[in-house]
Amino acid sequence: MTQVAIEPRPARRALLIANPASRRGARLIDEARGAFRAHGIRCDVRATEFPGHAARLASTLAPDYDLIFTLGGDGTAMDVVGALVSRDQPVGILPGGTGNLIARSLGIPRDIPSAVRALLEGEEARIDLGRLDDGRYFAFAAGVGIDARMVESTPVALKQRLGILAYVLTATRAVLRGEVFEVRATVDGVTHRRTAAMVMVTNFGTVLDQLFALGPAISHDDGILDLCVFSPGNVIDAARIAWRLFRKDFRSDPCILYAPGRRFVIETTPTRNAQADGELLGPTPFAVTVEPLGARLLIPRRD
């Protein structure tokens, strides 16, 4: 990962784009304001009012600020990051949603004052992005199957009460029901056909604070993305796959397929809803192209 130390500048101005509809966004806005104030940073807050509003705010207001921050879930973060791909402005992600997969993967604390401090005193990093054919971007992963089912079927009330555990419960139910589909995944012109429970085009290799690793040598700054296809035939297969991901054991397995690449086309039979960074994309097929080092993010300093 390409990293550059941030030099302290007392007169910096920050824009915080906050999603009050996210799991913790509304009640954390004042906490974030206070944290910026404690560091001598003038922070202007703009709240999102409708889907896509975060991208519009970022595109319009970002030129007036030194630093851009988001407060909400992964969807809010990616709206802003995607809007600034060509602007070359750093974005700091404050976790205020349910999954917060991007923030977790970058090592950003979930406590807002700690997150603000870690990012203001941290480094800048370039990471790859996935670009969908409709122009939207994702940082963590796009997929179909169990991960999309989590986004599609987890009740809002359960997410508000349990946080990321609500997604785990929905995923467990999907595994126990044995939901599978036929997938045709084309990676850089090479086609793979499988019966699958989950298909991901991923940029990050770990989830849940590195509790699980999705595959071997997956890096978010190597200019490629990675196809991960998981094909359990029964609950025993599913348990073995989970154990291997937990142990980071990537030996050959008939129920797992890995394929790195730069261009991916995912087709399924029957048609299924897909997701990217926690936002539903609509029905398959979908296509992804890597945007090498497309995002400039603030991350905690790594000693």
CATH top level label of the largest domain: Mainly Beta
Domains, number: 2
Helical fraction: 25-40%
Reported for the largest beta sheet, the result is:
7 strands, antiparallel
Mean of all residue-level pLDDT scores: 89
Straight-line distance between termini: 14 Å
Radius of gyration: 19 Å
H and E string = EEHEHEHEHHEEEHHHEEEEEEHEEEEE
Bin the strand percentage. 35-45%
CATH fold group of the largest domain: Tumour Suppressor Smad4
Number of helices: 9
Overall shape: globular
Low-confidence stretches are none
The number of distinct β-strands equals 19
Judged by helices, strands and strand pairing, the structural class is alpha+beta
Q: Name the CATH architecture of the largest domain.
A: Sandwich
Relevant terms:
alpha+beta; Rossmann fold; Tumour Suppressor Smad4; 2 domains; 7-stranded antiparallel β-sheet
